[in-house]
Each structure stands twice: as C-alpha cells, then as structure tokens.
Design goal:
Strand order of the largest sheet: 2-1-5-3-4
Oligomer: single chain
Strand content: 15-25%
Bound molecules: flavin-adenine dinucleotide, FE2/S2 (inorganic) cluster
Helix content: 25-40%
Shape: globular
Number of strands: 20
Largest sheet: 5 strands, mixed
Length: about 475
C-alpha cells in the first residue's frame, strides 16, 4: 500500500504494478495527460513533475523525470503535475511568464519546462542565470529556442509572489506528517512486488531473505530496463524511504554518505571538499536525474562509464557493505571485478560510501569528456589525486572511467609519477605508461584512439593546471 498527496487529494493505492512509472500512472489511471512522454529515458524532460517532501519544518520541492520514477517513490510525498499549477482560473506565474516571454511554440515540451521553472522558483530567492541554466539543462525544446524560456525563468524568479502552494504550505506539511510511513510496507499487484523498508536493519533482513529482488534506489538506471527494454522487474526492494541511508555526514577524516542519498544532496559536501568533484556533479546528467539518482546507485550500477567511481577511486573511497547483520569495508577499487561484475555477495548491499577529506599537500583534479556539456554520459572521465612535496609527486592515485570494462586505477601511470618531479619529462613518461594500463574499446561515444589520446591529454591538463595555476583550461573540458 502507498499513500501520497496528489497535490491536495489524499490517494491510497492498495494494489498497483510496482513497474508502473509515475508518468504512465498520471496519464493512465489518474487521467492527467498534461505530463508528456518524449523519450521515456530521462533525456528530454517533457515528463518533468515536482515532488514535495518534508525537510525539517519545511517542504522541499524537487523536479523529477516521471518517466523514470516508479510509483512506489510517491509514498509519503506530494506529487504536483502541470494540471495543479493553474488556480482559480488564473495561470501560475511560471506559466504566465512562458506566455509573456513567448516561451512555447508547438507546446510539447512546455509542461516539462513549466514544472522545472516551478521547482526553480520554489527553490530560489530571485533570478540567477547559472541556477536557471542548471534547472533547465534537463529539458529539451526543438522549436522555440532557449532564450525566451530563459527570459521566462528571469520573469518568474525575479517577481516571486506567494502562490497557492505557499498559502497551503503549513496544511500540506501537517498532512504529509500525518501520512509519513511508520512501518515497512509493500506495493504489489499480485504478480509483481516492491518492498518498502524504513530501516537499514529491515532492508538487510529483507534482502537476505530475497536476494533475487532488485534493489531500487533512484531508479534512473533500473527503470530503463522497464521503459527501454520492456522487461519486467517482478521483485524490487526500494531504498528511498530509509532515512538512515540518505544522510550525508562529515567528521574530521571523512565524508560519510548514505548509499541512497540523492546526488543533489551529496553535492554541497563533495563540492566543498573537492571543487572539481562539484564541477563534475554539475555535469552529471540533469537536475531531475540528480534529484533522484544516488551515489549508491551510480556505484551499484557498475557501469564502466559511471562518473563518480573514477573520482572516488582516485580519492581512496571505501564502501561499507552490509549483508544480514554483518558489515565489511572494501576499498572501492576492489569492488569492480569485471564488466558489471562486482565483489558484492548474495544479499549484500552498499550501505555507505566513505570519502577521505581533503588533506594538505594533496591536489585533486577531475575531468569529464562528453559530446554535450550537459546531460551526457562520459566518453572518458578521470580523477587525479597527487600528494606533492617540494615540486615532487610523493604519491599518485590516478583512475579512469571509459577506458576499460570497469572504472580502474592506472597503475603503470601511477608508477611513472610516484617519486618523480612534477615536470614535462615525468608527464610524458606517465602519458606513455597509460598505453600499458589501458586498451580501450571503440563505440558510438568514442574510438579507442580518441579515448587513449584523451586520457593522456587529461593528465597533461592536470599538469598544466598544477604548474601554471593561473591558466584557465576548464572551458575545454567537453569535446
Ligand atoms: C538521462 C540520463 C543521464 C545520465 N547521466 C549520467 C551521467 O552523466 N553520469 C553518470 O555516471 N550516470 C548517468 N546516468 C546514470 C544514472 O543516473 C546514475 O548511474 C545514477 O547514479 C544511478 O542512481 P540510482 O539511484 O538512480 O540507481 P538505480 O537505478 O536505482 O540503481 C542502479 C543499479 O544499482 C543497484 N543499486 C542501487 N542501490 C544500491 C545499493 N545501495 N547497493 C547495491 N546496489 C545498488 C540497483 O539494483 C541497480 O542495479 C544517467 C541516466 C540517465 C537516465
Ligand atoms: S519522457 Fe523524456 S525525460 Fe521523461
Ligand atoms: S515548443 Fe515545441 S518542442 Fe518546445
């Protein structure tokens, strides 16, 4: 059973197919066709909806891709779709701004843009161009062009008058508190099922008893199996309702990140410690995906082109893995064994990700190369973590994604760097060593030659930045 607010209406669903996406639920059983399907793969933003949830004593609104969100994610939340914005016959200010600024032509993308603008307006104090570009990077429009839409963002955010959602906020909060899940549950239709634990202990017990079940965190990878490959996921365990798996903590030595913390919640902690990590997270998918996708899911998916693993490996991150009542710690670099094969045992899951804090005398650089700047998967991604002392590299940790079947350390390159001066001769030796470390594949993202040359050039870029800190090289970090 799940309970949630469909804007103001309390909905209780006792039996639903847990493979049903919020998009199909809205357009089908709920009879709300305003939310559109463009791609069903998280790429176009036409399906953007906003979900409100309790954060302390306030409501937090996040934009999500309804096409990749299974209905179980709504449990205990408020779902707002484009139909909810107009109030007492008047367009919402974000809709009015789109009209005033001529932000729509054929209109197919418009509901998605409107919902992204709504979430942006709710989360901002005034107009900020960079924030607006970020909020809209996951929405594609094939006919209007983005300048009028950005003008609409400016109008909507600059004059942010209270709306009916603000007026109802206290009541909505109270209603969400009243329906907050108090014990673990299940959503199913008799054939397929999704278990909804609330604690890590409950999850550990359920997963040990049902190791064939698929773990569902944000679903931004997993849901593609349903929407793109038309497979059924008969048994899932949803991690998104376990508060203890969503915390992001910091002590003197490390960041301690719950596996189910959305990437947008990890951003501040990782960016404060490692600005390059923050820059990369800005370019990780879109805001809708980062609001939903998790660090644990990025690692759990074990893709050779996942963005966070090479960076985390370079930083020396560890995983806390849990199986039943026992936990173990594993260096992340030992987690990936072969293409999509990991060291995870039956019934074991990633509980936390431990990232060492920045240390004096160490330089960390990270780069992602993809065909588009925003919302695109890497061709090559690299993390460089160098301990420097008097112009000498005391220790190097170098890791790449997109260069092998798994995200991997470049051991020969590291050996060429360890103990060597930070200069051009060392650089060229280390670049040559990368050819020993990797024999990349060609695919539609990049040829093997391009990948190897790019990997070498990213190391060159790292050296240039460290040797000449005033040189601005960032602008070339996408192809
Ligand atoms: C449009 C689009 C753009 C994207 N762009 C990027 C990008 O730029 N960079 C990038 O790296 N990725 C990208 N992705 C992939 C995806 O968003 C990320 O991998 C994301 O971090 C997955 O997290 P999730 O919580 O949604 O995982 P889910 O889809 O819920 O799970 C992914 C896999 O991990 C497993 N899993 C989840 N949690 C755990 C756990 N705690 N323990 C063990 N296994 C677990 C699941 O069973 C599943 O097999 C993109 C995806 C889309 C659709
Ligand atoms: S339909 Fe394209 S992102 Fe959902
Ligand atoms: S108005 Fe036609 S796709 Fe945007």
């Amino acid at each position: 059973m799940i309970q949630f607010l469909l804007n103001r209406e309390l909905r209780t669903e006792h039996a639903l197919d847990p493979n049903l996406t919020v998009l199909n639920y809205l357009r089908g059983p709920l009879g709300r066709p305003g939310t559109k399907e463009g791609c069903a793969s998280g790429d176009c933003g036409a399906c953007t909806v906003v979900v409100g949830e309790i954060e302390g004593e306030r409501l937090r609104y996040r934009s999500l891709n309804a096409c990749l969100t299974f209905v179980s994610a709504l449990h205990g939340k408020q779902l707002i779709s484009v139909e909810d914005l107009k109030h007492r016959g008047r367009l919402h200010s974000v809709q009015q701004a789109m009209v005033d600024c001529h932000g729509s032509q054929c209109g197919f993308c418009t509901p998605g843009f409107v919902m992204s603008l709504f979430a942006l307006q709710k989360n901002s104090d005034g107009f900020d161009k960079a924030g607006s570009l970020e909020a809209l990077a996951g929405n594609l429009c094939r006919c209007t062009g983005y300048r009028p839409i950005l003008a609409a963002a400016e109008q909507a955010c600059a004059a942010h008058d209270p709306d009916h959602f603000d007026a109802e906020q206290a009541e909505t909060l109270a209603r969400l508190k009243a329906i907050a899940p108090r014990s673990g549950g299940e959503l199913g239709d008799g054939e397929k099922t999704c278990l909804l634990p609330l604690t890590v202990d409950e999850l550990a017990e359920l997963y040990l008893a049902n190791p064939q079940a698929r773990l569902l965190a944000g679903g931004t990878d997993l849901a593609l199996e349903v929407t793109q490959f038309h497979r059924d996921l008969p048994a899932m365990i949803h991690l998104a309702h376990i508060p203890a798996l969503k915390t992001v903590e910091k002590d003197a030595d490390r960041l301690d990140i719950g596996a189910a913390a959305p990437l947008s919640d990890c951003y501040a902690a990782l960016a404060a410690e490692y600005p390059d990590f923050g820059e990369l997270l800005h370019r990780f998918a879109s805001l809708q995906i980062r609001n939903q996708g998790t660090l644990g899911g990025n690692i759990g998916n074990a893709s050779p082109i996942g963005d966070s693993p090479p960076l985390l490996i370079a930083l020396g991150a560890h995983l806390v893995l849990r199986q039943g009542a026992s936990t173990r710690r594993l260096p992340l670099e030992d987690y990936f064994l072969d293409y999509k094969v990991t060291a995870r045992r039956e019934g074991e899951f990633i509980e936390r990700v431990l990232v060492p804090r920045r240390q004096p005398g160490r330089a960390f650089r990270a780069y992602k190369v993809s065909k588009r700047l925003d919302d695109d998967i890497s061709a090559v991604c690299a993390g460089f973590n160098l301990a420097l002392e008097g112009g000498v590299i005391r220790e190097a940790r170098v890791a790449y994604g997109g260069m092998a079947a798994i995200p991997k350390r470049a051991r020969a390159c590291e050996a060429a760097l360890d103990g060597a001066p930070l200069d051009s001769r060392t650089l060229e030796r280390a670049c040559a060593a990368l050819a020993e470390d990797f024999a990349p594949l060609s695919d539609f993202r990049a040829s093997k030659e391009y990948r190897l040359l790019t990997a070498q050039n990213l190391l060159r870029k790292c050296f240039i930045e460290l040797l000449t800190p005033d040189v601005e090289t960032r602008v070339t970090s996408h192809a």
